Amino acid sequence: MRTDNVYDIVIIGAGAIGCAVARNLSFYDAKVLVLEKNSDVAGETSGRNSAVVHAGFNNRPGSLMAKFCVEGNKGFEELCRELDVPFKRTGKLVAATCEEEIPGITGLYEQGLANGCEGLELIDGQKAAELVPGVNAVKALYSKNSGITNPFLYCVSMAENAAENGVSFRFNEAVKEVRYVAGAYEIVTSEAVYGSKIIVNCAGLDAPAIAKSAGAGTYDIYPCRGEYCILDVDKDQKLPMPVYPAPHAGIGGLGVHLTPTIEGNILLGPSAEYIDNNDDYSTTSEVCQNLMDEAEKLVSGVMDIKLIGAYSGIRPKLTSPEVGGYSDFIIKSEPSLPGFIDLIGIESPGLTASWPIANMVFDLVSEHLDLKPDADAVRTHHTFKKIREADEETKAELIRKDPEYGQIICRCRKVSKAEIRAAIENPLGVRTMSAIKYRAWATTGRCNGGYCMPKIAGILIGEYGMKPEEILYRDKGSNMFTGEVK
Ligand SMILES: Cc1cc2nc3c(=O)[nH]c(=O)nc-3n(C[C@H](O)[C@H](O)[C@H](O)COP(=O)(O)OP(=O)(O)OC[C@H]3O[C@@H](n4cnc5c(N)ncnc54)[C@H](O)[C@@H]3O)c2cc1C
Question: Tens digits of per-residue pLDDT, 182-230?
């Protein structure tokens, strides 16, 4: 094995957990590598969720989920400030639509208090309607501290900050096998063999397969797909905060809810359907119709906004369809494998809890490695300026300094050429259409990229020397062009 392929710590998976763990460890003097099978961060569950920063009332008192969710929520503002990531404390409603649902929301309120959640209040239907016009509630749980973020930018910024501090990222490298040989680990990927003293297995849906390959034992995951519909921008601010239904026993998630996104759209979903494969991200018109019907029952008037897209995410559930509900996160050093740390079943609220989880992983790593703070490491990370977020004076200043800020490439989202360039030149070196999409938010509007995608391809070809057939939408095999036509 080449000595430059030997690391102190190898992190498997660049979702929210892998990126948070990488950033956390980047503040110390260790040689760290992140291996990711996809072409970019957040390609799986971390980029396919509701993007809600939960308060912590949904989880059983005493569980890691409850503890880390409450901690994660409290620290999210500061974390996003450090990382230059958008975050809004919108508040959130859980609506009881009839008398029978009231005990469910009262139970959540009491569970929240037991978990140490702050800012919870049981309110009547009239107060709920003042907060969210059109909500169908006889009573509601109002959680003042719940919020929303952009999960892609969250992962991108964590990873970029880690990379600035010296963490290496290798994309398109699937870990095939992990072997414990003579007191250290050999990690066999699709491209190379690496050595490491410590492994952090945060491969999401594939984490049980990695654990099994290393000899850590068997964990059963039950993939449970959640489909979403995306509505166009909510210009009239009909939905100022997420609205969730009262809890119902047995379902695999929190129920079909309506969530405003940081960028102004509305998400409807997710559904909950146990599936056989952990990579089937299909969406279906039947489920989409059902989501719209459920959403209309919860908040009326929102369905006037046009449907512009759909996606799905898969929960790595540790509970079978028969059991339903939630198990707790599994986060532990495997007793039979020194320095092998497993993170299994990191379903909701894993996004909210990701930084406290990374702190716990740091403690587990410290039991095996003497980590000394790196005096040169930085905690703050800046992303490029967005013209659509700037006031008139800042816009003028941006355009004066860089006239490409004045050339709009994505008309739906008002993304300028300067931003497209900054996204193309991202510090992680990912040059795919979806990398540009998630960093600049281009192609995400109602035309779904019909107008700007060819322009972005033109920039990649004309100004970055890419051949048309080299341009990938996302992962290997997703080539957008086969060549040039006259
Ligand atoms: C429908 C849905 C809604 C949710 N809503 C919320 C919410 O509103 N708020 C909240 O806090 N949480 C929410 N969650 C939970 C949250 O999204 C997850 O807990 C979190 O994203 C998990 O992050 P992760 O890094 O563990 O997993 P992932 O994001 O799945 O990352 C694992 C990474 O490992 C990589 N990988 C897998 N196998 C290999 C391999 N062999 N080699 C190399 N790399 C590999 C994958 O490509 C992936 O990038 C939701 C989840 C779902 C499914």
Answer: 999 999 999 999 999 999 999 999 999 999 999 999 999 999 999 999 9
pLDDT digits (tens, 9 = 90+) for 265-304: 999 999 999 999 999 999 999 999 999 999 999 999 999 9
Shared-domain flag, residues 126 and 269: yes
- Its sign, for the CA torsion 337, 202, 86, 114, is negative
DSSP letter, residue 205:
G
Please indicate, yes or no, if residue 103 is contained in any of the structural domains: yes
Ligand 1 centroid to 204 CA: how many Å?
Answer: 5
Q: Best mutation site among 49, 258, 328, 331 for ligand 1, i.e. most ligand atoms within 8 A of its Cβ? A: 49
Q: Are residues 304 and 450 in the same domain?
A: no
Same domain flag for 226 and 313: yes
Asked if residue 258 belongs to a domain, the reply is yes
54 is catalytic: yes
Question: Residue 358 is inside which H or E element, if any?
Answer: helix 350-366
Mutation to probe ligand 1, out of 348, 438, 476 (largest number of atoms < 8 A from CB): 348
- pTM of this structure: 0.97
Residue 303 domain boundaries: 88-148+222-317
Of 365, 371, 403, the C-alpha closest to 387 is 403
Q: Residues near 462 by Cβ (< 8 Å), separated by ≥ 6?
A: none
- CATH number where 240 lies: 3.30.9.10
Q: Which of 54, 257, 368, 381 is catalytic?
A: 54
Two structure tokens written together for 196: 């490491």
Q: Total structural domains in the chain?
A: 2
**Alpha-carbon torsion, ordered 102, 105, 109, 110, to 10 deg:** 70
